[in-house]
Amino acid sequence: MDPEIKVAIVEDHEATLAGLASALSQEAGIQVVAQASDAQTGLSLVKESAADIVLLDLHLPGSDGPRTTVKKFCELPSTKVIVFSAENRRAFVQAIIDLGVAGYLLKSESISNVVSAIRSVAAGDKIVKSPGIAMGKEKLTKAEQEVLTLLSHGMKYQEIGEERGASPATVRKQCELLLLKLGLENREQLIAWAVENGYGKLDSD
User: Which CATH architecture is the domain 142-196 placed in?
Assistant: First the structure.
């Protein structure tokens, strides 16, 4: 008899976390060994439980952004990472996959598809992806261009939020997505990229 697949779930949405844990626990051959709602606790619990697979949300409290979070989890020995996210833009997904994850599932997936993905990854299959991920060349949205313009003018997250009628947390998330989309590492590089690509120019009028 094959050993059970030990799964950890790191997800900050309580209902999603509880639903996944309950459903997966009922599957033969799968054991949920750890649950966490923030990145740091998740890392600790995955290490302690020696989980085979971690289902990982990308936007977690206490993290330094999606790229850093994924890197830390991918560095854990003997644990494979399946990202579980609502973000389906191709450039974003590819940037995450390039960090070494074993799978990328959309939160719209059925439990049966999540289970299938877990079994496939545990069996050694290469990258497992949801079929609903957008394809084709991606462009910057109007909102993203506006954020880049304000960033290049030296505005902080709080100031950009006030300018655009959004919270600083929303602006931070937009910047995290831009970092992944553009293949950059930090806010300073993002500002430099914005300036170099013409977003720092003031309107002539």
Answer: Orthogonal Bundle (1.10)
